[in-house]
Specification:
- This protein is of the alpha+beta class.
- The chain folds into three domains: 193 residues, no CATH class; 52 residues, Roll (SH3 type barrels), CATH 2.30.30; 144 residues, no CATH class.
- The chain has 17 helices and eight strands.
- The strands form two sheets. It has a five-stranded antiparallel sheet.
- A hairpin with a 7-residue loop joins strand 7 and strand 8.
- Helix 1 packs antiparallel against helix 2, helix 5 packs antiparallel against helix 6 and helix 6 packs antiparallel against helix 7.
- The longest helix has 41 residues.
- The radius of gyration is 41 Å and the shape is rod-shaped.
- It holds the Pfam family MS_channel_2nd.
- Keywords: Membrane, Transmembrane, Transmembrane helix.
- It is found in: Membrane.
- It comes from Robertmurraya mangrovi.
- This is Mechanosensitive ion channel family protein.
Length: 422
């Protein structure tokens, strides 16, 4: 720099002109040095580091490269150079050094934030991340580091000690609590969610209050992101999962069985005692042979023992078509390949109402996938709707327009026949 001053003075220029020209040349020279240093750090050093990481066997090396951690750190080189040359401008040395320090702090904050996010990405490659996510904690650390960095930047700009600013923050604590209310609530909620294992990434949760019904894809400090089954995204505040109720279907998914709880409504006017012809027909049904033989033997022994007159069907015990049908459904499900035989299996009657007599099937499929579950359930009820008439039973259904038209047509025919006979 002294050489530049002497060179300009030897050219016999005006002293004021020499001063301005020397400053311009020094600034351009320092800028050129910064550009060259930045080029070397970005396009030479970082390329070498990238090649080393790429050729290494570290699985998470590509995550570091995607986050551009080293590239962000390279921005610190120009600030170091500017700080080193600050003494070249004695009148502005203090200001230049402070600005260089501020820039260095900002670059350091960006680097630390990128590094923490990279660590979170690496952590997510492990299976434990689904059970114990740390994204919320990393966000808390980021907030703390940003606050510290902000205090250091302000203290350098005003030339005061950081401790002086920290003492003033105590008076602003109420304001800070208000500003960071959601973050603090989210931090507490995140700790409770993780400690109690209430929700994990990949869980299917249902929260009607927020319109959420799908899989958890992300858990952060403030929100839990849910991808609904219609592919929309619902954002739920983390603390809402603590204060409000929600359904987590993880237990169902891990149990290996998904519940079928559905009823078949039988028209009560079609329920009757089984005749000899019906019993002979039912005994030939594969799933009913053993049941009919055992029941007939049991009923006969009971009626003989109690000397019951069976000429009147009301007396004693007898098979009914609804009872045989219920037994058929149970045996059919016991032999169904899509039903989990190690879990509850019940075929029961519910309270009779205006829609008929409900026959409820309570069972579990052996596959929890939605498509498979719906397919198994549909196959079962397809079969039951088709087989019910074979037992002399009618499935209840409210009269449709076609039923009313048929009824009106029959009424018209009878009227015409009556007129002709007359």
């Amino acid at each position: 720099m002294q050489f530049i001053n002497h060179l300009l003075l030897d050219m016999e220029l005006d002293p004021l002109t020499v001063e301005y020209l020397s400053i311009i040349i020094k600034v351009l020279l320092i800028g050129l040095i910064c550009i060259v240093a930045n080029f070397i750090s970005k396009y030479i050093v970082i390329r070498i580091i990238t090649r080393i990481v790429t050729n290494s066997k570290v699985k998470w090396g590509h995550i570091i490269l995607e986050r551009k951690i080293f590239r962000k750190l390279s921005h610190i080189v120009p600030s170091i150079i500017i700080y080193s040359f600050a003494s070249t401008f004695p009148a502005y040395q203090s200001t230049i050094e402070n600005l260089a320090i501020v820039y260095t702090i900002i670059v350091g904050l960006v680097f630390i934030q990128s590094l923490l996010n990279g660590l979170n990405d690496v952590y997510q490659t492990f299976e434990i991340s689904r059970v114990k996510p740390i994204k919320g904690y990393i966000q808390v650390v980021n907030i703390i580091i940003m606050i510290i960095g902000f205090i250091l930047v302000i203290s350098n700009l005003i030339g005061k000690s950081p401790l002086l600013l920290l003492s003033g923050i105590g008076a602003l604590s109420a304001v800070l609590l208000l500003v960071f209310k959601d973050s603090l609530l989210g931090l507490v909620a995140g700790i409770q969610l993780t400690a109690n294992d209430m929700v994990r990434v990949g869980d299917w949760i249902e929260m009607p209050k927020y319109g959420a019904d799908g899989d958890v894809i992300d858990i952060s400090l403030n929100t839990v992101k849910v991808q609904n089954f219609d592919k929309t995204i619902t954002m739920i505040p983390s603390y809402a999962l603590i204060s409000d109720s929600f359904i987590n279907w993880r237990g169902m998914q891990s149990s290996g069985g998904r519940r079928i709880k559905r009823s078949l409504f039988v028209d009560t006017s079609s329920i009757t005692f089984c005749t000899e012809e019906m019993i002979e027909k039912f005994i030939k049904v594969h799933y009913l042979t053993d049941y009919i033989i055992q029941k007939e033997k049991e009923i006969t022994e009971y009626n003989v023992k109690n000397e019951i007159d069976r000429n009147n069907p009301v007396n004693g015990r007898a098979l009914t078509n609804i009872g045989v049908f219920r037994a058929y459904i149970y045996n059919y499900l016991k032999n169904h390949p899509g039903i989990n035989q190690d879990m509850s299996l019940i075929v029961r009657q519910l309270d009779h109402d205006e829609h008929g007599l409900p026959l409820e099937i309570y069972a579990f499929t052996n596959d929890v996938q939605w498509a498979v579950y719906e397919s198994v359930q549909s196959d079962i009820f397809d079969h039951l709707f088709a087989v019910a008439p074979e037992f002399g039973l009618r499935v209840f259904q409210n009269p449709s327009g076609a039923d009313l038209r048929n009824l009106a047509g029959e009424s018209n025919k009878k009227s015409l026949v009556g007129d002709r006979s007359y």
